[in-house]
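Intended use. Records like the one below are meant for learning the mapping from a protein sequence to its folded structure. Do not use them to infer anything beyond what is encoded.
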Amino acid sequence: MSESPSVEWIGVPSRSGRTVVQRWNGLATITLAKMSTGARLTWIFHDHKDDQLGLFVHLTDDEAQAVYDTAPGVGPIEQIRATLQDPHAYAWRLWEGRFSSVPFEIPRHVDEQDFATQAWAAATRGMPVDETAV
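Structure written out for the chain above:
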């Protein structure tokens, strides 16, 4: 059994405003916030009407720079996913004004599609998917 990960970073206030890495239809879908322990990545990977799915990921300064430098069309953490210093993230869902999150260990050795499938499943674990809204 593995040791419980430290998740204190999730509540660390950012040192400055967030940096928008990517926008989609006017929504900031990938942002970085500088913290005393590195950076917090907020990634919205699904946005449809009143339903958003995403991840909060704790990054080192170097990992945050790699995310910032990632070319459009490449998954924001694909270049660093296999070597993340802290793979313990949170998958979250904001659905009709209700928020839920669950711990999510970012898989290091699966392809991008499997990673996306696992992240989607984790984010929707707290609330069922309304198939009519997709």
